[in-house]
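We modelled the chain as a single entity of 78 amino acids. Its sequence is:
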Amino acid sequence: MFPLARAAQSLVARGIQHTAVRRAHRKHEPTFHDKYGTMVLLGGAAMFSAVWGYVFTQLNIAWGFSPVGRVTPSEWRE
């Protein structure tokens, strides 16, 4: 069993080495994320900030007010 396992391990290692050599000799072409990733991230952050800035400043939302003590139960009707 050991020679079979050693042979399988050798094949796996050889495949990994071939993949590494193939990637090392290939020219790196920029992908969409390489070209536009930073701009998309900054645009999303600006949009997020603008929307929440509007929500916090322009909409008159009462944040965190609790109805405890203000709401009184009405009498039960039968």
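As a brief sanity check on the tokenised model: The radius of gyration is 31 Å. Residues 3 and 26 are 35 Å apart (CA to CA).
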